[in-house]
Amino acid sequence: MRARIDHVGIVVRDMEPAQRFAREVLGLELKLEPPPTPNRTAFLAWDGDAARVELVQLVDAAERGRRLGDAEGRLDHVAVEVEDLEAAIAELKQHGVEFTTEAPVAVRNILTVWTRPETSGGVMWQVFSPSA
């Protein structure tokens, strides 16, 4: 499977302090803060760097508690962009990888799937391609 790392997703309890740290301490620049769908997201990167950091503030309190526990933030997923999502899914399934949904999900301008960490080396991978 040929892919490129697009971003690393971090679930945060509170967007403002997470963004402030990323900007003021790490020197990342806010590149995109799309309208909530329903979760609030922000994409940050250093100038000239194609890989980004995605901060995700979950709206649903139960889901936020499940994914964060007592932490203020934690690494959630690594996102990779592929040219052919269906071929990538088929290849991953040949290796026993399972996904959180039966079919790819449309999110803004992409089609995407997320792996179940217990079937993909303990890491949740977001695999996506731009929608046509």
Average the pLDDT over all residues and give the rounded result. Answer: 94
CATH architectural type: Roll
- Point out poorly predicted stretches: none
Order of helices and strands: EHEEEHEHEEE
Terminal CA distance reads 20 Å
What CATH first level would be assigned?
A: Alpha Beta
- Side by side, the strands of the main sheet go 2-3-4-1-5-8-7-6
Number of domains: 1
How many whole angstroms does the radius of gyration measure? 15 Å
Give the biggest beta sheet.
8 strands, mixed
Determine the CATH superfamily. Answer: 2,3-Dihydroxybiphenyl 1,2-Dioxygenase, domain 1
Annotated CATH topology: 2,3-Dihydroxybiphenyl 1,2-Dioxygenase, domain 1
The share of residues in helices is: 10-25%
- Principal-axes shape call: globular
The assigned structural class equals: alpha+beta
Strand content: 35-45%
Query: What is the tally of helical segments?
Result: 3
- In total, the number of strands is 8
How would you summarize the topology of this molecule?
Blueprint: E1 3-12, H1 15-25, E2 29-32, E3 40-45, E4 52-57, H2 61-68, E5 73-82, H3 85-94, E6 105-107, E7 110-114, E8 125-130
